[in-house]
Design goal:
By secondary structure, this protein is mostly beta strands. Helix content is 0%, strand content 43%. It is built from no helices and six strands. Strands 1-6 form a two-stranded antiparallel sheet. Strand 2 (14-19) and strand 3 form a beta hairpin. It is flat, with a radius of gyration of 15 Å. It starts with 5 loop residues before the first strand and ends in a 6-residue tail after the last strand. It binds zinc ion. Zinc ion is lined by residues 9, 11-12, 32, 34, 50, 52-53.
């Protein structure tokens, strides 16, 4: 068994919604790119490296199974 598991990083993932063939609206998780948007008043939103996966080799993903917080 050489299959390697990985999990979408919960720090920088995004969730969108899509409508399936039956017309139901469903959530869909989009893997992030290793950055998060942080609200820093009064400058507004700034993009910073994700504190969870920002310095990994595979931004947006974590090795193994990681349950959401
Ligand atoms: Zn992340």
């Amino acid at each position: 068994m050489t299959e390697s598991m990985r999990t979408v990083c919960h720090g920088c993932r995004q969730v969108t919604q899509y409508r399936d063939d039956a017309g139901n609206v469903r959530p869909m998780v989009l893997p992030g790119n290793g950055t998060v948007w942080v609200d820093r008043a009064p400058g507004g939103m700034v993009e910073e490296p994700c504190p969870v996966c920002g310095d990994s080799d595979d931004p947006g993903w974590l090795p193994g199974f990681v349950p959401p917080v």
